Amino acid sequence: MKIGVMSDSHGNLKAVKQAVEEMGRVDVIIHLGDYVEDALYLRTITNIPVHILKGNLDSFADDGSISLETTLGGFKFFACHGHKYGVKNDLHRIYYAGLEKNAQVILYGHTHHAYIEDDGRILMLNPGSVGAPRMGDPESYGLITIENGEIDAKIIPFWND
Questions:
Q1: Residues 88-121: tens digit of each pLDDT
Q2: What are phi and psi of 38, to 5 degrees?
Q3: Phi, psi torsion values for 150, nearest 5 degrees
Q4: Which end of the chain has a smaller Cβ tally under 10 Å, C or N?
């Protein structure tokens, strides 16, 4: 199973489309918020499930959820934008929320900065910003591969021309 993860597209549909093209075949895409409209666009250009989460700039959006708890490829995922867990300050609150939910994978965005860490209990992934990077970072997205009970996660940077 392959899972595409993106966040913080902020209306940059060109970057969203480029990320989808670069991902290749994936089974599902999770958009972690900011903007819900961009995630809805994903549904028009793909024929796969797209999970839509609300970010701090999506409070008035009708579509999307604040968080997602699901099992994919045998792994339990907890996903959210991250702003309600103070991820710009530290990752303690979101990490412990994931532990309480028995998550094996935590996905979040909001910081516009890509991050990946696996402490042996929980794999944490922030794909960075697909459409509005900061501090010289490139646009980026995440790609998770699950095969034979093993999980591998990568952050894929790209420069949107």
A1: 999 999 999 999 999 999 999 999 999 999 999 9
A2: -70, -35
A3: -110, 145
A4: C
